[in-house]
Amino acid sequence: MENKRVILAVALSLAVLVGWNFLFPPEKQAPKTETAVQQSASPSASSATAAPKAESLSAFAPTPGKKITVDTPLYTAVLNATGGVLEQFSLKNYHQTIAPNAPLVNLISDTARAKAPLGIILNGSPTWQNVEWSVEGGDLKLDAAASGSLVLVGRMGDTVLKRVMTFTGDSYLIDEKFSLSNNGGTPLRNRLSMTASVERLSAADDSYNPTQSAFYGASGLSLESGDKKLMEGIALEKPVEWGAVMSNYFLVAIIPDTTDLHGKAKIEDGIFRVALDKDGIEIPAGGRSDLSISYFLGPKVPKYLEMAPHNLIASIDYGWFDFVAKPLIKLLHFFYDYVGNYGTAIILLTILIKLIFWPLSQKSYKSMDQMKKLQPLLTQLREKYKDDRTKMNEEMMQLYKTYKVNPAGGCLPMVVQIPVFFGLYQALLHSIELRHAAFITHLPFTNMIWLADLSAKDPFYITPLVMGATMFLQQKMTPAPGDPTQAKVMLLMPVVFTFMFLNFPSGLVIYWLVNNVISIAQQGWMLNKKS
User: Fold this and answer.
1) Burial of 37 (0-12, 13-18, 19+ CB in 10 A)
2) Could you give the C-alpha distances from 432 to 66, 93, 249, 299, 325, in angstroms and in order?
3) Judging by DSSP bridges, how do beta strands 140-141 and 67-71 pair with one another?
4) DSSP letter at 432?
5) Does 273 have pLDDT greater than 60?
6) Contact at 8 Å (CB) between 194 and 256?
7) Helix intervals (H) in 208-248
8) 412-429 and 358-384 are packed helices; what angle lies between their axes, rounded to 10 degrees?
9) How far is residue 56 from each of residues 155, 163, 309, measured CA to CA in Å?
10) What is the tens place of the pLDDT at every residue in 134-175?
11) Residue 295 forms beta bridges with which residues?
């Protein structure tokens, strides 16, 4: 995965500078999974209240196949009255590409529709296939301040299913009041599965923006993006609160108002499917069981995610450096509010970060300059004690002590800045605001599209190549390490980073490039100040 390559490359740089002891950071432990099956392997007893009385079907009139359109300022949805499954969910503010008149992002494609998105499975039986349904209400057109509901009623023997689905004009949430009624003369024990089916939300080869299954519970967020594992299917052992299919930018989630759920995920016919199972729903004769369910289909914009229950905002995952990423993304939006261009906002944020770390950088350059002065003496010691490394190290440490030089002084300030780099890296990578956001739309003096999408790579590789050149220039301005092997590895770092950055989202490359340019200017200023 490309994120791991970034971490490895930076870790390698630090290892070369500081020593050779930090090459193997601990890997993040993956959640325990098992091969998914159509039903949960073992029931988890969870009694539901049976106080409400069963729904009556005295005037039931099936309306098979009826299509219902819900139109809001944010999206257009089409539902099928047979089971209440979604057939379309187009986001009005998001297009598939930056091309003029590009189609809208449709979270429920024709291929995904065949897998019954938002369908309910009862006791292993798909209710969109084996149940007669009727609908109360028709097409809804809602403004931002309005809400509206549809009532879907299904009959399967003595069991009645009712779905009251409510839509709101200023939210991507669909709220559902679901009920199961037992009109028979004996108690029923039911198993319910709530499902979502979504076509891949990003390109199959986009390692920076993978489509993933996601589940959230007491132990936090569990993610799986490996196609091989998902084709086999996974089933989480621990209970979860919500399940979803998501990319960096979009999310389709099921959020029931209960926590005794078990999550499953699988890729079937190229479609990502997630299911949440609730077992042991006891309904006495003439009784009813109710459950509230929310669905979120939309962009991963914090203000909309915060409207959802059960901490859906956790779907924006900044990893270990969450505490750094969140304030940085707020600063980025702050700058954007003033300049109206996210590329310019990234540059201003980079300048601010460099100003904050300016004293540390000065200390680093001063330490490197001191080490440069000691290089002739260190070379003599290496030559004199080349056959006795223990003695050589002792003499070198004594030399550092005599001249009051810290050999790691040039690197430690850089180490402190690493969390900031990774925090900003994650913030930019997961910020939907950068998707299709332009910096410099056309290559200067041409009509060729250039940095018109900060979430995509530079189509001409200009910025990563310039970035590599700035790293090479920094290497030339920095005193060479005394160890020849270490010096060779350091010379390779600009090449490694350049190739790694070729396919980086251009917004991230701009950050690194500007950071390098400022560092070169700072180092040049120090050299001129000394002379």
Assistant:
1) exposed
2) 35, 12, 5, 7, 14
3) parallel
4) G
5) yes
6) yes
7) 227-232
8) 130
9) 10, 14, 31
10) 998 899 999 998 999 999 999 988 899 999 999 999 999 999
11) 174, 254
* Alpha helical stretches, state H, 430-505: 462-477, 484-501
Is residue 150 within 8 Å of residue 137, measured between CB atoms?
yes
Q: Taking the alpha carbons of 311, 316, 317, 323 in that order, is the dihedral positive or negative? A: negative
Judged against a pLDDT cut of 60, whether residue 27 lies above it is answered with: no
Distance CA 455, CA 349 (A): 17
Higher-pLDDT residue of 495 and 480 is: 495
Q: CA 494 to CA 65: how far, in whole Å?
A: 60
Contacts of 198 (CB under 8 A, 6+ apart): 107, 108, 112, 117, 211, 245, 252, 271, 272, 273
Phi then psi for residue 404, to 5 deg, are 55, 50
Return the structure tokens found at 320.
Answer: 């270990």
- The pLDDT tens digits for 98-116 are 998 999 999 999 899 989 9
Domains of the chain and CATH, by start: 2-27+323-530 (no CATH), 33-37+66-317 (2.70.98.90)
- The arithmetic mean of pLDDT across residues 407-411, rounded, is 64
Report, in angstroms and rounded to the nearest whole number, the Rg of the chain calculated over CA atoms.
29
Specify whether the CB–CB gap between 355 and 522 falls below 8 A. no
Distance CA 322, CA 332 (A): 15
Residue carrying the six token digits 């960096």: 248
SS3 content of the chain, % helix, strand, coil (to 5): 35, 30, 35
Q: Which of 173, 297, 280, 286 is nearest to 245 (CA)?
A: 297
